[in-house]
Amino acid sequence: MNDTQQQYDVLVIGGGPAGLSAALVLGRSRRSVLVVDAGEPRNAPAAHMQAFLSRDGAPPSDLLAAGRAEVAAYGVDIVGDSIAEIDRTATGFTATTTSGATYDAGRVVLATGLRDVLPDVPGIRERWGRDVIHCPYCHGWEVRDQRIAVLATGPMSAHQAQLFRQLSDRVTFLAGDTDPDAETRTALEARGIEIVTGPVAELVVEDDRLTGVRTGSGAVLPLDVLVVGTRMEAPRDLPDRLGLEMTELPGMGRQVTVDDMGATTVPGVWAAGNAADVRMQVINAAAAGNLAGAAVNMDMVQEEVRLAVQQQASRTTA
Questions:
Q1: Which tens digits make up the pLDDT trace of 176-207?
Q2: Looking at residue 230, what DSSP letter applies?
Q3: Among 200, 129, 126, 188, residue whose Cα is nearest residue 157
Q4: How many angstroms separate the Cα of 257 from the Cα of each of 19, 51, 243, 245?
Q5: Where is the FAD/NAD(P)-binding domain (predicted)?
């Protein structure tokens, strides 16, 4: 081990709700824990997070700041960096960060979240998390009764339109170049959801506010909110390097395959939050991190029991 290499019981990769929750459980179990966080949370564009009991409407950054302070109180180390390489060793794993630091750990919790792959329409990325949204449970209340258009990007888009119809009676389904099948069209029209076909060329923004979308024909459809279904992708570099099995969710994205407690297909590696379930909101990710942290600790306890029994047997036969 070189001078810059440190040994931890657990390396948590990602310092969002899932990673910090896992670190909290492990820190309280008197494990040595390192959290490596690149500082690129998925919900950074959002001013507030919703549907988190007792934290509804709080800025995401406030939750992370509070979580960092809590885990630090239990001796958890946090570094602002990202993992460039990770390899299995005889005793666990060795990880090297982009800054060149190297860490050894017996176990790994992968909580790297995911990234949203946005539709290739001019203006969407600049408005993302503001008046271009994707989740009725995250943002729906805030856009209730407004003019909402749902941009078709996959098989779940019509379902999105039905969810937002619960929140406003002014919902339009932008079907693009596809023609909804008869069943989908009937369901949309039955609830008064207008269907507009043809491509969307760009967003129309005035005074830093979305006011409509311009179609391929040049016509402008007035609206206040655009809903898009993103393709949600968990980072692949670390899972691939660790040899983790991945699961493809049709129309949604890829995620690490885990069991009910977050264990991956590779011994010693757990995954939690959006890395393991692209559908999770903040509160779900925090809960998954809690479960994964407990599972990691139990795995370590079982190993400690096994070693203690072996040592006792050795002393008895000596």
A1: 988 899 999 999 999 999 999 999 999 999 99
A2: P
A3: 188
A4: 17, 26, 11, 6
A5: 8-289
Interval 40-66: pLDDT, tens: 898 888 888 998 999 999 999 999 999
Domains of the chain and any CATH numbers? 5-116+231-317 (3.50.50.60), 119-228 (3.50.50.60)
Please count the other Cβ atoms lying within 10 Å of the Cβ belonging to residue 126.
13
User: Kindly report the CA angle at 189 between 185 and 192, in degrees rounded to 5?
Assistant: 150
Cα distance between residue 168 and residue 191, in whole Å: 11
* Burial of 185 from C-beta contacts in 10 A (0-12 / 13-18 / 19+): middle
- Helix H, strand E, coil C: the string for 243-255 is CCCEEEECCCEEE
Structure tokens at 124: 């969407």
SS3 of residue 33 by DSSP: strand
Q: Give me the residue label for tokens 């099995």.
A: 245
d(CA 60, CA 57): 9
**For residue range 101-123, what is the model confidence (pLDDT) as tens digits?**
999 999 999 999 988 889 999 99
The rounded distance, in Å, linking the Cα atoms of 318 and 6 is: 35
| 129-176 confidence digits (pLDDT tens) | 999 999 999 999 999 999 999 999 988 899 999 999 999 999 999 999
Q: Can you tell me which residue has the tokens 């309280």?
A: 28
Q: Give the phi and the psi of residue 287 in degrees, each rounded to 5.
A: -65, -40
Question: Based on the number of CB atoms within 10 Å of its own CB, is 133 exposed (0-12), middle (13-18) or buried (19 or more)?
Answer: buried
